[in-house]
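Holo prediction. Input below; ligand is S-adenosylmethionine.
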Amino acid sequence: MAYLGTPTATAEVIQKYGFNFQKKYGQNFLIDANILDKIIDSAEITREDCVVEIGPGIGTMTQYLAENAREVIAVEIDKNLIPILEETLKGYENVSIVNEDILKVDLNRLVKERNEGKPIKVVANLPYYITTPIIMGLFESRVPLSSITIMVQKEVADRMQVGPGTKDYGALSLAVQYYARPEIMLNVPPTCFMPRPNVGSAVIRLTRFEEPPVKTDDERKMFSIIRAAFNQRRKTLVNALANGLSYADKDGMMIHVSRQEVSMALDQMGLSQTIRGEALTLAQFARLSDLL
Ligand code: SAM
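Structure of the complex:
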């Protein structure tokens, strides 16, 4: 099968199958071979690797993955793409196509069955409408994985990488940096896709930490605090948490914190009573969580 990563080859497949792009699935297919090579290099795929690809589309990147990895599991939600994938990937014996929603599929089971529970690599040109739930789902479900190399909207890539004191810093930055080391690998303009998205894109690699860089007694509680702090990011932390924080403890009991408790914790940490969540580092959120 010829490579699909050119405008002509992609247009031919689309035409042959009378495929209609579905906006609701974030379908923007890659048509630039140079970018595809760079994604594969960034993901550092070897013949040992079992790779999960989210949203293979017509199989453009899947071909590259199949040629470099031991095995590829490609999870695609759109049933209209399945017959196309069966055709475009028929020369590759190490690819399996799974017609499911990545947010619902049991990846832990797949990894157990296909890779003896050993860490996989995730590579994807993500559907942008669900970037955050996909990334959070991969980390929170504890799927054994060593890295995630993904194309996302440029702004979202920036958000994953920044630290306190910048406008892009938020719950996603903290969550990603708790689980992984983020590195933006390349920027990709809209001209590299068919159809062209309205935004610039970037490839980011998230290398999973073996141990999180900070310790906290209760991870879920820390993330409830982080979410509450950034839901009302213009408010002081005292106000944002006293109004907005409630979380379920280990027994499922809903816990609320009082203004006084937050205030005392900030005092103990030597922080100002008027500080906003956007000024706190991950280590400070971990400490605050343990104090509350
Ligand atoms: N990998 C292809 C490429 O680079 O040309 C296609 C990338 S396109 C940006 C995103 C793909 O994700 C589409 O094929 C879309 O149908 C698929 N998709 C969207 N939502 C999905 C979901 N919830 N689960 C699995 N695949 C999904």
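The longest helix spans residues 219-231. That is the main takeaway for now.
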